[in-house]
Amino acid sequence: MSCTDRDQGKGGSILPTSADPDGAWSPLSLPGVRALFARAGFPWWVAGGHALDLFVGHPTRPHGDIDVSIFREDAPTLHRLLGGWDLHGAHAGVLTRWTTSSMDPPTTSIWCRTTPGQPWSLQVMFDEGTGAEWVCHRHADIRLPLREVIAHAPSGLPYLRPEIQLLLKAKGTRPKDDADFTLVFPLLTPEARRWLNEALRRHYPDHAWLRKGDRRGPKGRTE
């Protein structure tokens, strides 16, 4: 799979192509992610398609990668946590080796592998905000307390709430994003459905998901 074919959780642009022409991936498992971040000491959460799987309660489709999100302000601690790994900042189709502990905009994420030449193992997305407030990187008017952004699987794994993940997938939707919406939207609580529909109307007023969402029944899953 080439780097340009990857999902990246729809949290950032589809990139990059420079570091490895083949862009091979061998993503960490969810237990592997949990073990890696066990001593992180900062907020982190699973994002992308795996976040939706954690909400549904089982794998829903194959995933070519795995995404974790953190606050940008925690980049120095992430750099120490992954000391010895081969780390590259991603922006605008280019991968650049991450050699300093800070990571300022416009870099949107870090691609991680254990050593050069190995398949990529993990993508870490940078979100804005602080430990108390999350700011949507795509729609800065959306600001929420962190406790309203993260849910937890029965295993304890933190993940991005499904209504927020679907909003991040709403820009430039592909068939797999439509499939994710079709599967996940009926399982949302009524409150989560309302939140997503309101956010779609504000930012994507002509989005096809609004028409689909209006036809869904009133019942949702209780978390």
Could you walk me through the main structural features you see in this protein, from its secondary elements to its overall organization?
The chain has 223 residues and is an alpha+beta fold. Helices cover 28% and strands 20% of the residues. It is built from 7 helices and 10 strands. It has helices at residues 30-36, 49-56, 75-81, 162-169, 175-184, 190-203, 208-215; strands spanning 44-47, 67-71, 86-91, 94-97, 109-113, 122-129, 133-135, 143-145, 150-152, 158-160. Strands 1, 2, 3, 4, 5, 6, 7 and 8 form an 8-stranded mixed beta sheet that branches.
Keywords:
single chain; 223 residues; alpha+beta; Beta Polymerase, domain 2; two-stranded antiparallel ribbon; 10 strands; 20% strand; globular; disordered N terminus
